[in-house]
Amino acid sequence: MTIVHLLEKNAREKGAQTALIEINPEKSETRKITWNEYELVEPTAKQRHYRREITWQVFDEKANRLANMLNSTFGGSAKGKKVGILLMNCIDWLPIYFGILKTGALAVPLNFRYSSDEIEYCVSLAECDVLIFGPEFIGRVEQVADKLSKTVKLIFLGAGCPAFADDYNDLVSECSGVFPECTLEESDDAAIYFSSGTTGFPKAILHNHESLIHSCRVEQKHHFQTEDDCFLCIPPLYHTGAKMHWFGSLISGSKAVILKGTQAKHILDAVSKEKCTIVWLLVPWAQDILNALDSGEVKKEDYELKQWRLMHIGAQPVPQSLIKRWLEYFPEHQYDTNYGLSESIGPGAVHLGVENVHKVGAIGVAGYGWQIKIVDPSGNEVARGDVGELCLKGAGVMTCYYRDEKATADSLKDGWLYTGDMAMQDEDGFIYLVDRKKDVIITGGENLYPVQIENFLAAHKKIKDVAVIGLPDARLGEIAAAIIELKKGVTATEDEINEFCLELPRYKRPRKIIFADVPRNPTGKIEKPKLRKMYGAEGLVDSQNKS
């Protein structure tokens, strides 16, 4: 079985039930749509709350029409072809993804923040035959259209198709909504994802159909989705995290809401109006909700939230102080932390488990169908309590880094994925993420793990977000610098932060405090290479008088 068969099963058994809802709080129109209504009239600036929905039957028909179009484009079979997806979150995103998979072609989701050069690089690296893009990307695609169009068919989804592309609606409008089954094996290639780029230029990650169906099973086993659940999806669908959490809705045949917006009031409004039961948040969004509740900007009693049963977080380390605050406001919530990488088909390789809230701070234990080990530089397992590199093994591990044998050999060894994350395991078997291997700071011969310092500083009542990086130092080699983003409307001084840090061991205290915004990518990860570039250029920092 593949995830394509799960969609078809839902279309047969739950065809008239709602599958997807798209909400844009900055727009106003509300309607159900049929397969060929791809673009609605742009509302005026004063209008608010735009909503549309599709059933499982329409979802499947939309996927089928694209699949038939792709097969026709490639002389009867698109199997093995590669189709890029460059779209903002929208109700068409998942039907397009599944239409590609139905043919045996490979889906290649692209980060919506990519520059024109990065688009060209990733499309070329993945050897895409087609690129489907939306109106937000016309300018960026146009800059590289002459180069891409020599080997890539450019297809535009939206109103006002540019001259250098073919119109999506025109291409699929005459295609059948019924698709003859394509023989798919779990070992067949299915998708190419790209690494988040926080450690350099993106690498292409190849997954097969076994990986995708495994992620469906993992999500359902961890979060117990039934057809009565409703999942609120906010993060970008190009990333494995959002999509693989949505796979729990796919396998259970339950409804999901795609929210285009991250403001606290919009999240709570969507949960309330759509009766959402499961919400996956990134740390900044959870913080924003708590800050809005603290300030009175939003009031819990103004929303219908009693059906909301699970809040879970992934993609980054979660401060204990954040979850403590969350459970004070929402004591009835189940909570889970999920850990994974695009190389391990997103979340779930390690998870805390809703029954283990007493272990908040840990990323958890091996997920359903996963094995873990923590090793030293020689590949030997370390003792519990010692820090080493976290390794994963299971059906969701990538096939390879596409067209990069060296990177594959460095990361895949005897079926184990070496994650590059430093971790330790406590006496009960729970895993704590210490830091990225490449982010470890070596100061005066001591290893500093920035995540530990970040978690400590996150408990300060004035701090909204924090990142700790290493800066060069003439005496110690490197020192820890804390980039601190304060909450709105508050001020703080270096002396105030340094005094707070007196509770840390001397060698762990940041030796430089910088008040500035903390940049994060769309999946919530701190962009530390950007910070090192911004602040590392200041040259050597004199640490002689800092203690």
Overall pLDDT score: 88
Compute the number of structural domains. Answer: 3
Structural class assignment: alpha/beta
Work out the number of β strands: 28
**Order of neighbouring strands in the sheet with most strands:** 2-3-1-12-11-13-14-15-16-17
CATH class designation of the largest domain: Alpha Beta
CATH superfamily membership of the largest domain, which one? ANL, N-terminal domain
Textual characterization of the structure:
With 547 residues, the chain is of the alpha/beta class. The protein has a ten-stranded mixed sheet, with helices on both faces. The protein has a five-stranded parallel sheet with strand order 5-4-6-7-8, sandwiched between helices. Strand 27 (477-486), helix 14 (494-500) and strand 28 (512-515) form a beta-alpha-beta unit. Helix 2 (56-73) crosses helix 3, helix 4 (116-125) crosses helix 5 (138-148) and helix 9 (264-274) packs across helix 10. The longest helix is centred in the first third of the chain and has 18 residues, at 56-73. The chain is globular, with a radius of gyration of 24 Å.
Write the layout of secondary structure elements.
Blueprint (H helix, E strand, L loop, with lengths): L2 H11 L4 E7 L5 E3 L17 E6 H18 L8 E5 L6 H10 L3 E4 L6 H10 L4 E4 L4 H11 L4 E4 L9 E2 H5 L16 E6 L9 E5 H15 L6 E4 L6 H13 L2 E5 L4 H11 L3 E4 L1 H13 L14 E5 L5 H10 L4 E8 L4 E6 L13 E2 L3 E6 L12 E7 L5 E2 L3 H7 E2 L2 E10 L5 E6 L4 E3 L2 E3 L1 H8 L5 E11 L3 E10 L7 H7 L11 E4 L12 H9 L11
